[in-house]
């Protein structure tokens, strides 16, 4: 964002709450407004002409008990980092000085920094609520209670997945400016969903959405939380319109940690029942999700957890129940794979505990319970959040699982483990499987247009943050149209170029935008063939289009370039009666429901039992992408996601103290993995075409991030289980593991 310049752009900064929960007694901006170079300073009281809260997405309303996400806090703040005021100055230096001079008076209220505190306290995060919980979700398959009564073996416990930050390499930012003559407002923003921001700006400012243009530049990472609408970008737009000049805001890293939405914090009480032979008979989980101050995600993420708990296993009886709890922490966002890693962490931990209790190798227990290919399309008995009964796409889960074990050299690492048994540095091996609902609708669209220059433009409603859309969707368009790949340009992230899109997220772009691009390209090909037939004096069915040239079958030397056809189309009688006289088509693809992908990750770790330090020594990834349009990009997506999942298992955790103060607000305290923390991440693709979309695509973007925490926990426990260690939470840091090892030694009367 900082590369986007506008002459005389002012700089905006946000005054953020220093308290997790407090009454706002006063926001003193009078002296700040007098400082040199300060153009304006506003609190909520100064923005009476704007909507007080941010509109919910697509003109809807928030689910659950009533609440609103304020544009600027008025009367009360509910987390450290909540916006209280804005200051606009001529440059960044005078802005920094002015922000430090803002005085805010607080009356502290009881902080509710954990779900236990929020559920036990008489204090309420939101006025009028009877308690601090909302949005219960659940699923029931069979009679779980009766099935547990018949189980020969039951394992269970309380499992905790930590709160995580997305930490995109580029924090958020925006620059906006008005055009009074055109009556428009243009804003560039480092976001994932330009249409949602467009509508939020229009709704908050009380102007037509058609007058707002949102553009997205090349973005240095998004990972889900940038798909939400926050006050900051709207405030930039409001400031530009009020001051009638360009205004830029750039988020700092500490702001990013405290203000960009977090995700993943769940605590489960779960159990798994099995026969003596290791067949699953029942599964149950009851969990709470810490969603921070505002449950803006609704019940979507907790529903994901409920639906993904059974995973790729045959579970004849299942009972899952979750609820959201509001706390005085940063609001929740949908971070890569939202709701799924938590489910897989719990389920895969239960599988390893069960294997140990049954005396089985963890891989063997999974073999006995994976859904078989002859059972496809398999229906686990649950209903997805789109209201459709879950049905797994065709696939061969057992074969993909075995492929992952081979890719890791599972048997070889087991031999090494035995050779190092009893030593200070031990080997542990872990596996984890997942089934993932991907490609959520309701739709995605695309326009394909042949320019008279011969270039092909693909206009889409989704914006990219490094996923490779410009390559994969260009491949689809080129293949369906018959154009050269190098002639295709993909344009996204511009609300003026394409009317509507549902945003990047949910592993949905290739699965939804891909078929839309293919459909539009096929329509253009048909139109081009009709124009070419007129010029070449042949039947349209005899026209072939290859390499951006049209020719009669069998006569490739007599060819017309696509640009020539685009010129001719506007006067061609061949297109009479059609929607328009150009080589242009727009289509939308509406999937009936999500498509289900499968994957397995496997790892080998080396654990130092004296220090608790863990080193990842080998990792393998197998995923079913349906059809991989570009295998290199698919592999890179899986590797990048895997690193985020591994980080959840080994390093990353957002930590607040009892007062709700963020303790991990910089890279000094929040540890992200470095290149030298990782071995090569081997990837194999196991392709089984989806039946949900015509291209056979299953989602990939989030998949790699799903099983990492579970794999790491399983591998580390595998190394030290004989020392009495059971892992119930991640990340398994050296200090956390050392404490578990030390505690068990003391319990056995050994020196620690």
How would you characterize this protein structure?
The chain has 752 residues and is an alpha+beta fold. It has three domains: 10-109 and 166-259, Aldehyde Oxidoreductase, domain 3 (Alpha-Beta Complex); 370-374 and 394-436 and 594-752, Aldehyde Oxidoreductase, domain 4; 444-589, Aldehyde oxidase/xanthine dehydrogenase, molybdopterin binding domain (Aldehyde Oxidoreductase, domain 4), CATH 3.30.365. Helix content is 28%, strand content 24%. It has 18 helices and 26 strands. Helix 5 packs across helix 6 and helix 14 crosses helix 15. It is globular and about 90 Å long. The mean pLDDT is 97.
Keywords:
18 helices, 3 domains, seven-stranded mixed beta sheet, Aldehyde Oxidoreductase, domain 3, Aldehyde Oxidoreductase, domain 4, 752 residues, five-stranded mixed beta sheet, alpha+beta
What is the count of distinct domains?
A: 3
Helix tally?
18
The CATH topology of the largest domain turns out to be: Aldehyde Oxidoreductase, domain 4
State which percent range the strand residues make up: 15-25%
Please report the total strand number as a whole number.
26
**Kindly, what is the distance between the CA atoms of the first and last residues, rounded to a whole number of angstroms?**
52 Å
Low-confidence stretches: none
Mean pLDDT figure: 97
- What would you report as the Rg, rounded to the nearest angstrom? 28 Å
CATH architecture label of the largest domain: 2-Layer Sandwich
Give the name of the CATH superfamily of the largest domain: Aldehyde oxidase/xanthine dehydrogenase, molybdopterin binding domain
**Sheet having the most strands:** 7 strands, mixed
